[in-house]
């Protein structure tokens, strides 16, 4: 086909994205570098010296980091278990992991409000058996955020890892065992290294997803702000467009840096070179 | 393996309890007759299901959500199908870059995209909120349309297309009569996946609600922050059933392997 036609087919979509995605993003980033027509970094230095903002940034990074670690620690063994099931069992467990993934994040966060709330399942159960007298405040804390985010992203890392582990030749594991390796060391020396690229991709998805998630922190975090709810607050509640633009730019930079670092790592650890 | 590990089986069971338990609890809670969600239930009632239909804002935002998702889907197909076709059919300079640009909306944090759209489309260009909502949803649906239809096209044997062309059919007629019918299941699956993505979206929509305009997830979010009655639980159950039906259709069309590929 003539190249001219190909470009014609691509043009409408490309124009649309340029006008409604690339241009708004570029203009937002650009606007943060000027004040009264003068080039300046002051929007950023202002934030990076503000204790309140640094605390929010710290909480966000900590919550995202904890979420990623927990997702990996839980997801890895479970994905291994699923990947070795016979086809029927595997399909059922995969479907049960995909269903929450497709369910609205509002519904999923709300479900944790029922579980963790003052009148929630956990408090009622603990008070019912007399373990505690007063209801625990779990809801509206960073812990609640982490629980909600793990619930949100665990399916993602599960299905990513199952996708990678399915391709591991399990004859290798059996060969190692028949040559005298214990089950655990066969797992550690064969399955783990071959899963690392998938593990890194899964971790990127979870970490970046947690870093930028809005619904879960907004519903479960209470007064504790994270960077995404802080962006929303500045834009909508406080109408501070300069601050919101600077936060948006920082979120993009952090996202791209994380993706770049982890992609490098994934390439380096890829056993296929 | 003969020596199955019971520990790992139990662990997997507990992890699935964590994943699905809260969703099951919503379903149970939706039958609570009193006005406050609590456990254990004090009785059994279907009145909150009825209440969902009586809260006007749920019905009107549901309508907005469906219209925006369907129209946005249509726009994304108009823009995405030709692009997906060009990207999988041709080899030309800048193909990888163009492919990356078309898939990039999934990489940009949704909340950032939502904010920049608000700032430039609504405030600077003075585009009405409803149109901006539609534009934003089209942007986020485009990568899903391109990815799913692109992978359908990569499985399509273009020799069939060549045969049709060499027998004298025009390019356009060939596309509609030969190519499209062959990738039909991919297109339907792409539409369903993009629909869910748009219908559940919070990050973009939250910046684009104005007087009388809002989507269902945003309305639910606002409701949950102010009330704690079982209406939201009943509505959630309905949405979960809806999600399950769409997921079943996607599985029929593409298989579960669509989700495990990265």
TrEMBL record, chain A:
Pfam families: BPD_transp_1. It is a multi-pass membrane protein. CDD domains: TM_PBP2. The keyword Lipoprotein does not apply. Residues 57-262 form the ABC transmembrane type-1 domain. It comes from the Bacteria. One of its GO terms (cellular component) is plasma membrane. One of its GO terms (biological process) is transmembrane transport. The chain crosses the membrane at residues 52-80, 92-117, 137-162, 190-214, 241-262. Belongs to the binding-protein-dependent transport system permease family. CysTW subfamily. This is Putative spermidine/putrescine transport system permease protein. It comes from Paenibacillus algorifonticola.
TrEMBL record, chain B:
Signal peptide: none annotated. Residues 62-250 form the ABC transmembrane type-1 domain. GO terms for biological process: transmembrane transport. It is a multi-pass membrane protein. It is found in: Cell inner membrane; Cell membrane. Belongs to the binding-protein-dependent transport system permease family. SUPFAM superfamilies: MetI-like. Its main location: membrane. Pfam families: BPD_transp_1 (PF00528). One of its GO terms (cellular component) is plasma membrane. InterPro entries: MetI-like (IPR000515), MetI-like_sf (IPR035906). The keyword DNA damage does not apply. The keyword Protease does not apply. CDD domains: TM_PBP2. Gene3D superfamilies: MetI-like. This is Putative spermidine/putrescine transport system permease protein. The chain crosses the membrane at residues 7-31, 66-88, 100-123, 129-153, 232-254. Keywords: Cell inner membrane, Cell membrane, Membrane, Transmembrane, Transmembrane helix, Transport.
């Amino acid at each position: 086909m003539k190249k001219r036609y190909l470009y014609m087919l691509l043009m409408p979509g490309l124009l649309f994205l340029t006008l409604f995605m690339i241009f708004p993003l570029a203009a937002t980033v650009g606007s943060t570098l000027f004040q009264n027509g003068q080039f300046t970094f002051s929007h950023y230095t202002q934030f990076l010296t503000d204790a309140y903002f640094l605390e929010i940034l710290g909480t966000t990074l900590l919550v995202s980091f904890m979420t990623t670690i927990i997702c990996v620690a839980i997801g890895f063994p479970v994905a291994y278990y699923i990947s070795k099931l016979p086809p029927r069992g595997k399909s059922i467990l995969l479907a049960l992991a995909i269903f929450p993934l497709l369910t609205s994040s509002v519904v999923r966060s709300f479900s944790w409000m029922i579980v963790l709330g003052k009148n929630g399942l956990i408090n009622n159960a603990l008070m019912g058996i007399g373990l505690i007298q007063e209801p625990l405040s779990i809801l509206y804390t960073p812990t609640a955020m982490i629980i909600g985010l793990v619930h949100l992203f665990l399916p993602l890392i599960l299905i990513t890892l199952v996708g990678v582990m399915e391709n591991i030749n399990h004859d290798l594991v059996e060969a190692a065992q028949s040559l005298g390796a214990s089950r655990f060391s066969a797992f550690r020396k064969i399955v783990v290294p071959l899963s690392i690229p998938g593990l890194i991709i899964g971790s990127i998805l979870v970490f970046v997803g947690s870093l930028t998630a809005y619904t879960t922190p907004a519903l479960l975090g209470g007064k504790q702000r994270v960077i995404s709810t802080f962006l929303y607050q500045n834009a909508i509640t406080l109408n501070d467009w300069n601050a919101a633009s600077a936060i948006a730019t920082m979120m993009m930079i952090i996202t791209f840096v994380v993706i770049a670092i982890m992609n490098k790592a994934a390439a380096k650890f890829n056993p296929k070179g | 393996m003969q020596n199955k590990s019971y520990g790992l089986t139990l662990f997997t069971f507990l992890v699935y309890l964590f994943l699905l338990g809260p969703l099951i609890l919503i379903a149970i809670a939706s039958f609570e007759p009193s006005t406050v969600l609590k456990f254990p239930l004090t009785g059994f009632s279907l009145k909150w299901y009825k209440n969902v239909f009586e809260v006007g804002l749920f019905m009107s935002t549901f309508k907005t959500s469906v219209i925006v998702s369907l129209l946005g889907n249509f726009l994304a197909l108009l823009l995405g199908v030709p692009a997906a076709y060009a990207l999988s059919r041709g080899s030309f300079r800048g193909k990888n870059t163009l492919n990356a640009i078309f898939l990039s909306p999934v990489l940009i944090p949704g909340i950032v995209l939502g904010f920049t759209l608000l700032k430039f489309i609504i405030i600077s260009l003075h585009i009405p909120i409803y149109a901006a909502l539609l534009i934003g949803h089209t942007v986020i649906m485009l990568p899903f349309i391109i990815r799913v239809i692109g992978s359908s096209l990569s499985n399509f044997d273009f020799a069939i297309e060549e045969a049709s062309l060499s027998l004298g059919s025009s390019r356009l007629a060939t596309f509609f009569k030969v190519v499209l019918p062959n990738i039909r299941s991919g297109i339907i699956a792409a539409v369903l996946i993009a629909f869910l993505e748009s219908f559940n979206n919070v990050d973009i929509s939250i910046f684009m609600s104005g007087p009388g305009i809002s989507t269902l997830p945003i309305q639910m979010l606002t409701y949950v922050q102010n009330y704690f009655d079982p209406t939201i639980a009943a509505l959630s159950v309905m949405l979960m059933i809806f999600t399950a039906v769409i997921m079943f259709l996607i599985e029929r069309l593409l298989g579960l392997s669509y989700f495990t590929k990265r």
